């Protein structure tokens, strides 16, 4: 269904569309048909049905009169063709590439015949990550045409002669400029111009030159570089740094495009706002640079008078004549995270992370909005983010949405929230989330029947909330945070009663992020990790969350960083990302027990206290610790939850909520101790 700009946001979010998809599911007392509870001793697992179901996306590019849109966090990965005149999805192709694949990179060749597709995945299985779809025969699937040695492709560019260039990255290696030759079918490594960069997200090309943009948007801090921009001479095969000096302190080069004989450049900001520049291709030292008020600049489109780009606040326009910026006004919904922006016949085609395409009439300031699921894009089950339960609902975070499942009726409604709800808690019936990227804390009260709203903002560089914990003594929400660009992390606190918030930067040290947060008796316990290969990790710090003042710390002597923390009685339990268990006596402040539990927990994990015992969940297993011996027992083997950025578990009224595969489950475990 197509909605005009006069249609209320509430109708855009009604159940049945990708912005508010409702599905049938069973309650705890009466599981849905085909989901018989599983009994294992005194443990009962009830299947509540699929988790977060929607059509989520991560890219968009206009070819002719069709916008091609790449999916995000769906298996298999898919590209759909959305026909602007008819406002229908008229074509699609499945890629089926890797675990939790996403498509961030799309580019068409100059003839408009071929669409090149770059894939990123959560784990590398050695599969192809570069595909080509012949748009003249859309019924035939896209073909795999190659693989860059970087795990992920973040951006693609096609030169006028048809040569394809790709950039991206792989953890712990500098990003490379890759070339695909359609004549020979070969993929070539052209070099890594910035050995200290951690990720490349921008590439543009002419017949003679390729422009490579990188920085430290992930694993920043330490010796990682900031925004870098290189010109690669295709004849001499030499790289030359051409980054404007005003951009050198920004974390990353975010977007590049060649337009009208000029190179258009945008950065990601952190401490300082993002910057926009137009560089003369004949003289790289000649450029116009404009500072913005936002944190990100991405996606470029142009008409005769303006260059448009997306930011977190919507769409901005750069006047070619007077070299100033202005906001594009229109009557329409919040665009959320924008993944596609093109210009056609006086209108902007905007691809929103909320799962719709908005066509904005620039002159009139009006818009037409089409829900992609209703237009024919197939919804799928996302890998989940944070999870929380309370007052008859269970919530599951995802990309651009949080699903709300009614445990009485089984109704599921997707609520919109920008970015990703990495973790969450329900406090007196109200949902609070830690929202990535740089979105702070969000709040949703089901009694008021509105959409989630931002409750607290924090410094942009403290961008990745990881763990959320409710402190009933201080009546504070506690959030552990990672800074992707600067290194280290923070402890956020928020009072639902007063609305006041605080941020305590680097409470462990200047390199350890706060991976885990637990609390008891008014004391917050922070577990450290380190995104870099070297340096301290696995430090546990006790702080007063009301003041941020440190009370004590313990070096746990673990080889890997902390994945999760939980408190039971006088003991603080910790699990590391390599499956090490440590237990700290909170009174003596000493480690009193260690063990190797990597057989049930390796990688990211989450823990919670329930019915007098500490429970943990890994990518494979739901497990429990004995409160006296600390021995680990398997509660649900092979749970294999489909989590996007680490598993989660939440407890409410004695039940544990987590994912088994892509489905939500409620686990009733009654230990004999």
Give a verbal description of the structure:
This protein is mainly β and 673 residues long. Among the domains are: 54-375, YVTN repeat-like/Quinoprotein amine dehydrogenase (Methylamine Dehydrogenase, Chain H, 7 Propeller), CATH 2.130.10.10; 458-555, no CATH class. The protein contains two helices and 59 strands. The strands form 14 sheets. The chain has a seven-stranded antiparallel β-sheet with strand order 34-35-36-37-38-39-40, with no helix packed on it. Strand 38 (430-436) and strand 39 (440-444) form a beta hairpin. 56% of the residues are buried. Mean pLDDT is 92; it is low at 1-41.
Provide a quick synopsis of the model:
The chain is mainly beta. 1% of the residues lie in helices and 52% in strands.
Strand and helix layout:
Blueprint: E1 2-4, H1 9-12, E2 38-40, E3 43-50, E4 53-54, E5 57-63, E6 66-71, E7 78-83, E8 88-94, E9 102-108, E10 114-120, E11 130-134, E12 143-146, E13 152-158, E14 164-169, E15 178-181, E16 186-189, E17 199-205, E18 209-215, E19 228-233, E20 238-241, E21 252-259, E22 262-268, E23 275-280, E24 283-291, E25 298-302, E26 306-311, E27 314-319, E28 325-327, E29 338-344, E30 347-352, E31 356-361, E32 366-371, H2 372-375, E33 380-381, E34 387-390, E35 393-397, E36 399-406, E37 412-427, E38 430-436, E39 440-444, E40 453-456, E41 464-471, E42 476-482, E43 489-494, E44 501-505, E45 513-520, E46 523-529, E47 539-544, E48 549-555, E49 562-568, E50 571-576, E51 580-585, E52 590-596, E53 606-610, E54 613-617, E55 622-625, E56 632-636, E57 650-652, E58 655-660, E59 663-669
Antiparallel strand pairs: 1-32, 2-3, 3-59, 4-33, 5-6, 6-7, 7-8, 9-10, 10-11, 11-12, 13-14, 14-15, 15-16, 17-18, 18-19, 19-20, 21-22, 22-23, 23-24, 25-26, 26-27, 27-28, 29-30, 30-31, 31-32, 34-35, 35-36, 36-37, 37-38, 38-39, 39-40, 41-42, 42-43, 43-44, 45-46, 46-47, 47-48, 49-50, 50-51, 51-52, ...
